Amino acid sequence: MLRIEQLSHSFRNGDEITPVLQHIDFQVAKGSMVALLGSSGSGKSTLLNLMAGLMKPTEGNIYINEHNIVKMNENQLAEFRRAHIGFIFQAYELIPNLTVIENVELPFVFQGVSPRKRREKAQHLLEQVGLPDKGKMFVSQLSGGQQQRVSIARSLITEPSVIFADEPTGNLDTKTEDEVISILKQLNKKMNTTFVIVTHEREVAEHTERVLTLKDGRLIEDAVTTSAQAAGSGIGGVHT
Ligand SMILES: Nc1ncnc2c1ncn2[C@@H]1O[C@H](COP(=O)(O)OP(=O)(O)O)[C@@H](O)[C@H]1O
Ligand SMILES: [Mg+2]
């Protein structure tokens, strides 16, 4: 459902051109969960932002459900993103003066969905992420892990085809990190949504079915993990 073709990107600062991604090619099957692993500065966030249509690449193509988002104009892209793409941020990016359930509903507000349907679906998703009774609270009253679960619920409300998550457990301790990853895995199975998870931690990456490794802007490894065979059985070593 996701296909990256000869993708390259450089940042330009006056006369200085910094190449950040070079000739990236890969495909991701519908409903799968893959990790994009690499150390800080390897180009993970740039790649994720390009795939989510948040910026345009210098070169190459990005197909989501056979639609090349690189060729879309601003309006087409905005509409496509609302319908097909979800995003989860490291720092949650929730709205502090809205309640938990209002945050989850927000994408539906922009789509003009009726208040009743919004509320029903948002409550259902809060149950899915293990926060059935937190809807009326404000986000500041929740722990980091709980806030990330709210942001996961929010990303799913429009039932996007693909969710991009940039270091979703980067601000969490190890135990909370495991909880959040296991929720992502459960939702991936249940909802058949494709997940692309960026991380710099190999332990996090190996919870997924497949690990794509970036180094200095190049894809250097594409490995299937044992989680792919023994789904749900926890962490496994990588074999190719
Ligand atoms: N807006 C920008 N302008 C110039 N250079 C950038 C910009 N954003 C990122 N970079 C550079 O691109 C490289 C990759 O960054 P990034 O994609 O954020 O890596 P990662 O997410 O893997 O840490 C880094 O060297 C970074 O300094
Ligand atoms: Mg990053």
List keywords for this structure.
240 residues; alpha/beta; Rossmann fold; seven-stranded mixed β-sheet; four-stranded antiparallel β-sheet; 7 helices; globular; disordered C terminus; binds adenosine-5'-diphosphate; binds magnesium ion; transport
Overview of the molecule:
- Keywords: ATP-binding, Nucleotide-binding, Transport.
- This protein has 240 residues and is an alpha/beta fold.
- It contains seven helices and eleven strands.
- The strands form two sheets. A seven-stranded mixed beta sheet has the order 6-7-8-3-9-10-11, with helices on both faces. Strands 2-1-4-5 form a four-stranded antiparallel beta sheet, with helices on one face.
- Helix 3 (100-110) packs across helix 4, helix 4 packs across helix 5 and helix 5 runs parallel beside helix 6.
- Mean pLDDT is 93; it is low at 232-240.
- Bound molecules: adenosine-5'-diphosphate and magnesium ion.
- Magnesium ion binds at residues 44-45.
Question: Which helices and strands appear, and what pairs or packs with what?
Answer:
Blueprint (H helix, E strand, L loop, with lengths): L1 E12 L2 E13 L4 E5 L6 H8 L7 E6 L2 E2 L5 H11 E4 L11 H11 L4 H14 L15 H13 L5 E5 L7 H18 L2 E6 L2 H4 L4 E6 L2 E8 L12 E2 L1
Parallel strand pairs: 3-8, 3-9, 6-7, 7-8
Antiparallel strand pairs: 1-2, 1-4, 4-5, 9-10, 10-11
Organism: Paenibacillus agilis
Protein name: ABC transporter ATP-binding protein
Keywords: ATP-binding, Nucleotide-binding, Transport
